[in-house]
């Protein structure tokens, strides 16, 4: 019976998952009609009722997810409203976040000139404390549809917008604060007051940001250095109001209620202690989730706990696997976009693995044996997803989670929550100090050699045999074929992309927004030209390197000292082995002084890798200018058949001198200065005569790059113009011929706003 329920639920979830993989949304009614017809037919054919019901639920899941997706996309900003100034009245509906250049916050419109999405993510450049949660404002907004960078191995921001129900982004032109506060934002105001309470009690504490994250769910003040350490040790899931914290805190309160209730005869005689414990646990989860602003992940956790509590409330025998499967079905039914979240699958499958292992245990046994077994099971269960999605596996994760989970979930979090109501601030201080001790242990774990294992991400289909392998390896001793589980895990480790042939190269112009970063690979080497704006470049370049299966960079070329070109260079050097840095930067940069092997860009110098020649064309020896753009390194990549030219931000007189010196014809040109009018002169374009002109620019950027006249100039010269803001990353495979892959098209999903 349990297997039948699992098959039916898996069919529904599989239908939802298949829809979320579609490049375009089909009509939903044929699938819903097929589900209805199949359901009617199943009552007539009893013998095949289970397979028919599985097909019915698959079609129902697909059609239902399709209908939900169409409704959500209908709430996105229409294309015709993009970049138009719109006057909107509304309120700040969540905690504002300080950014590098201002403030980011969610804005809920209440009055506008035309219908707008219910939630808009707004960036307001300038002072960082200009808005507060719950305030009412009249803003003049420049609106955009949800848009993000699309790159190999990169985070899909547009998918995240879809999951969160955010229908537009915007920047503020002008704003006037209105009187009064929005009643609908009462919860956000409470969370804001609690955040201020923590910051006031821990003004200079190094882990105040973590305490805020654990109490009110705001992760904005946690330094990037700490995030990198948590990723390396596999404890990122602990640094938030996560499902684990909510579940453990609810379980703790349920245990306390059960313990106390049983010892009060008057209460125990009138209401069962187990049910009182269930109510206490659910109420605790509800309050704690409210502190997180009822974010989408916490809503899923509440649904899961609520389903489990309902099954236990009925006081009828039920297998834990059935409760787990019901919780999965309820969450996916409530939120069919949940299957797009990696965190959703990690949490659900980890719980499922722990239930699978725990169901085989006879007797209590030695407690520390059980804890080690649980950590081993959780690590093995999450490993396939981590490898397929991120190409990384934190090898010290079992050890780090072994001490971090109890310290954070049972020690730090309850202390921090109690500290919210402690006027002395002592409990908050103790929570912060306990976490400081925890992080000291994490630092020791991160310092272990090879603590983070990086591989080329295996294909998605490898998850299916890997799931079977995990089930077999964690099966009870004596199960036939148990050790064959390791064989089913092999596709995760042995599948590798074919190396590039000798004398060919692959150039990936990464989509880093308004900036530049180009990854050039040969058979055995990798070079990165610029790193993009921080933190965009870091979030793009590192995943792209992992997706390409590169364990190191042979060269890092930093063209000139502009933030949109080298803003992420320090982070790249901290996280990735780099053989040599070639640059045109000032010598007094602190992070550059730590680089062992470096050389300045000098025209006429070059090197060869695997039959591919790399040549520097600019700047010449002794050339010095205060204008940073004029000092740009210019790189030419040549395999003897086709050339790639990267002129960075070169323009004006230096560009004219480069042409006068004999600029070689190039098949691919990454247009200088993102297609700005100060570069790509007519003489330059005619000398280069490219087949492809690539423009790396931000979506609807305020500079108007690439300029229409520059696009026309390259098109008139016979070049095919390509743009990262429209196509995502652009991958050129250059051998005897040139192959082009537009990443947004190659990985097309129905929610991509730009064709």
From TrEMBL:
SUPFAM superfamilies: Metallo-hydrolase/oxidoreductase. It is found in: Cell membrane. One of its GO terms (biological process) is establishment of competence for transformation. The keyword Membrane applies. GO terms for cellular component: plasma membrane. Pfam families: Competence, DUF4131, Lactamase_B. Its main location: membrane. InterPro entries: ComA-like_MBL, ComEC_N, Competence_ComEC/Rec2, Competence_DNA_uptake, DUF4131, Metallo-B-lactamas, RibonucZ/Hydroxyglut_hydro. Keywords: Cell membrane, Membrane, Transmembrane, Transmembrane helix. Residues 514-699 form the Metallo-beta-lactamase domain. It comes from the Bacteria. It is a multi-pass membrane protein. The chain crosses the membrane at residues 235-256, 276-296, 317-334, 340-359, 371-391, 403-422, 459-475. This is Competence protein ComEC. It comes from Formivibrio citricus. The lineage of its organism: Bacteria, Pseudomonadati, Pseudomonadota, Betaproteobacteria, Neisseriales.
